[in-house]
From TrEMBL:
<protein>
    <submittedName>
        <fullName>FSD2 protein</fullName>
    </submittedName>
</protein>
<dbReference type="InterPro" id="IPR050617">
    <property type="entry name" value="E3_ligase_FN3/SPRY"/>
</dbReference>
<dbReference type="InterPro" id="IPR036116">
    <property type="entry name" value="FN3_sf"/>
</dbReference>
<feature type="domain" description="Fibronectin type-III">
    <location>
        <begin position="46"/>
        <end position="142"/>
    </location>
</feature>
<dbReference type="Pfam" id="PF00041">
    <property type="entry name" value="fn3"/>
</dbReference>
<dbReference type="InterPro" id="IPR003961">
    <property type="entry name" value="FN3_dom"/>
</dbReference>
<dbReference type="InterPro" id="IPR013783">
    <property type="entry name" value="Ig-like_fold"/>
</dbReference>
Amino acid sequence: RLEEFLKKEVDLELSTLPDFEERVIDVSEVEQLMNSINTIPAPCAPVINPQAPNAATGTSLRVCWGLFSDDTVECYQLCYKPVSNERHSDGQAEHTLKVKETYCTITDLLPNTQYEFWVSALNASGISPPSERAVYVTAPSPPIIKNKKIQSCENAVLVCWESRDINPVDSYTVEL
């Protein structure tokens, strides 16, 4: 029977034409709902703090910043580079770190060297403008005491040392 059925020509014409209504769909309610959804704006620029006392060692710096708004922030992008007195300082290597907190300790730096820092805030909507730039300075290396030049007498001692730093040191403190 199946074979006979498949041999027959089947007429697939509809005897009556379908009657479709033209409908206009009102999406104004959906538009209002879509417009009422709050989108998170990109954050404002963070404010980088000046260098705090005791925030540096010879090879590290602790950098802090903050926000003066209630922006939603997922992370921060901290950038830094060594400060150069040369006119062609564009060749200096710029470093970028992603940080979750409003502070970061940067290590493996050079002693008695100035570094320029700036920070941006990021969220799902984008990145903020960068903060103002702040200059931080690592602590100088301890000097090398020249043992062969030490001289002493009953009421005095002469101690000589030399700095291991390329940049000049402002002052030294001698402790007895």
